[in-house]
Amino acid sequence: MRTSRYVVCLAILLGLMVLAACTQDEPKQSSKEKATAEKADESKDTMPDKGVKDDPYGYIMKAPEAPETLQEVSHYPEGELAHLKFRDEKDQPIILKEIDKLPELDGSEGEDVYEAFWNKLVELYAMEYKDPIELWEQLKVKSFGDPDIDDPRYQFKDGLNVEIILDASGSMKADVNGKSKMDLAKEAIRSFAKTLPEDANIALRVYGHKGSGSDEDKELSCKANEKVYGFSGYDESKMNSAIDKIEPKGWTSVADSLDQAQKDLSAFPADQNTNIIYLVSDGIETCDGDPLAAAKSLKDSDVQPIVNVIGFDVDAAGQKQLKDVATSAEGSYANVYNQDELTSEFDRVKEVAEKWEKWKRKALGENFSEKVSNGFDILGFSARWGLDNLKENNNLTATLLYLRDNDRLTGDAYEFISNKNDERRRNILDMQSQFEEDMKKVNEENYEKMNEMINEKYNSNKE
Q1: What is the DSSP string of 409-450?
Q2: pLDDT by residue (tens digit) across 195-207?
Q3: Terminus of the chain with fewer CB atoms < 10 Å: N or C?
Q4: What secondary structure letter does DSSP report for 86?
């Protein structure tokens, strides 16, 4: 079956994702969160009297309900202990500092307490399970230029324009594996820019590079939003000069940067140009702007860019906002933790640029290896789920054994929570196996029929 039918299905899927994403403009506290909070309050009122002045269960009752469905698992925040290893001598003291806050349970407390205890453990150790919808976004980018694709952003046009928006707020000074995030981002941008075709235009916009993180400098820093290169063809000397001058200093103005990018691209209407934006940020908006509104305005504008949002070593709050920005722009989001992952995200657009360049030379033919390549992407995505689940389960299991062996979790309490751990392990592995099987079928069999199934299965919880 032709790849084009597969791309049409992807386009339909992503269109339905946009409709589903409109439901995200709800009050901050969902009905589920309210129900969880009410349940926690009720449970507190029924806690057994341990003769302790302070509520011994207060620490665990604040944890959100552990996720169970695929959508809940893939949108649950990463735990603060997720990247530590319980059995690592360097990590264990850090982990035990949190674990020692947990109350002792002897099996007489009841299932409400056991459930809350389990919820807290998941909150601490949960890995970031990538949403399978992110894989669809990646496959759509790879389908760029297919003659049957419905989304005009991915059709061949006469011009190719790429704008990179770089966060230069003070937090970009932080080290990642011995180098600052800013230095790693600069290296990735240098490497990416030189790979673009000669006929392509590139621009670099930076924000937060003036002032400081102090309140006194907030206005100055938030107004520091500057296009330091382009739009023009790549000139290595000029690009390096522009990059070298950037230093991380102040506040984060995501919304204004998107507004300015829309103005930058206004000279390149979408009917004649393929426009691509990369937003690299390590935190949330701090300049009082509305990044979701700016992203939606960008999507609805005449430039219609393909928006790629990259969260660089971002905390849970930052991940949520940046994901929402990507959704509002009908773009993609990726969370990266090191230079290799950041470079890999930039590499995704290299494929677009290469296909565009071949098309300009009238040399673009059928890509017979696309299905095989897609298959590798699916396997790689699935393998990451499996590896993350193994890391998470090792930590949870080691923690439970530690608590049991130190008589801090005994009797029915240990049995209940241990069973919960086993159930979560099986549940996530089943999810992994199921979405891998589904996506392989989409790649290899009846695309339209399977697309309807994917829409129903993976988007029903977004309503």
Answers
A1: B-HHHHHHHHHHHHHHHHHHHHHHHHHHHHHHHHHHS-HHHH
A2: 888 889 999 999 9
A3: C
A4: T
